[in-house]
Amino acid sequence: MSLFAAFALMTALAALAVLWPLSRVRAARGAHDADLAVYRDQLAEIARDAKSGRLPKAEAEAARIEVARRMLAADSAQEAAAIEEPARVARQVTRRRRAAAVFALLFVPVFAAGLYGRLGSPRLPGAPLAERLTAAPDRSDVAILVRRVEEHLQKNPNDGAGYEILAPVYLRMGRPEDAARAYAEAIRILGSSAVRHSSRGEALVVASDGLVTADAARAFADALALDANEPRSAYFLGLAAEQDGRAEDAARIWSQLLARTPANAPYRPMVAAVLARVGGAAPAAPVAGAPGPGAADVAAAASMSTDERNVMVRGMVARLAERLSTEPNDIEGWLRLVRAYGVLGDKDKAAEALKTARATFKDNAEALGRLDAAEKELAVKTGAGEKG
């Protein structure tokens, strides 16, 4: 109730600020006073011109008479209007003041209360900060949870796990400087790791609005020194090279990163896009988990007859085709399937695989180029086989 009383008082003060100027009677200077001021200026100017000789005496006298006549006419008009004008003006001013008072004192508060009743939560109980800090944890209130962890770290400054938990939360809350400091504390207490250095570097990049600073670059270099395959650090070091104007270094770093990035990695399209931005060529992607002959298959094939080996190969090709029917966004798999059909002499199946792959990658110019190259290679091999 005290909060609503404060709001009511603030509303009353705002209305009073609007109505106070309207309640004061101000004597505005009318048109008559303005005309008299102009005529006086004209008389003074005529006197100056007559004294200096620029205006003959006869003309000066005639001008003074004309200005005096206009002044008398203005006085007469003012006297005629003075009888009815004050009452009419007073009535108009009174009506305007009443309308403004009704609007400010009634309409605005009623409208605000109705809007709050519809969109607000008038029955929601208060939640003072002190009570929220002492109440049971509410996982939806991230700010309170962060505050509690901060208080815990103030009492236990060597709790590295607390800093490591708090750092990514800071980053999601839009506090990258605090996140970088928390990661630095975690490294100091828990020791170095590629993920911690890389995460600290990313926080520093976010804090500098996307610029890879020298401190951030050192953090990424430290991460790669611990794990040469840490992808985030390689990406940002390539970005640092691009920002420094070293496009060739950026292309080399991103090309190496792309070469060891699995085809199904979620960040692979982003790396391919930045590599294309600096004019680099995308290398072939390693295919994780693609069906192919293992050591046992090779050993078994050595003891098989030709027909048995063909059956085994066709079974592997069939498994690859089946996988691509459910996971079509694997350009490497399609290229392997086309080549396999070419080796087996199934030109129709190879052509059908090329058609399906082109439909899948119709918006990917790089993939379409590789499919065209595979088709030409297939045509050359098929032609050579037919001639032999």
Automatic annotation (TrEMBL):
TM region positions: 99-117
Database matches in InterPro entries: C-type_cytochrome_biogenesis (IPR051263), Cyt_c_biogenesis_CcmI (IPR017560), TPR-like_helical_dom_sf (IPR011990), TPR_rpt (IPR019734)
The organism's place on the tree of life at top rank: Bacteria
Location relative to the cell: Cell envelope
UniProtKB keywords: Cytochrome c-type biogenesis, Membrane, Transmembrane, Transmembrane helix
PANTHER family according to UniProt: CYTOCHROME C-TYPE BIOGENESIS PROTEIN CCMH
Name this protein carries in UniProt: C-type cytochrome biogenesis protein CcmI
Gene from which this protein is expressed: ccmI
